[in-house]
Predict the 3D structure of the following.
Amino acid sequence: MKRKYSIAETTKVEREKIVNDALALSTLDAAEPTEVTKGLIDRYIMGEMEIAEVLKRTIERYRAV
């Protein structure tokens, strides 16, 4: 079964769960996300930015370094 992640196909509660699950897995053996990344994630939860855009902007920030 394919999971849905787009704003149009999820509720705010579902997006919060998606983010919480992803953060729990990603921080098992890594640093916590930066405040900038957390801000982008919050925009996804609020339905202001698609997760693909959050990922794109996060990756771009690290490529620039």
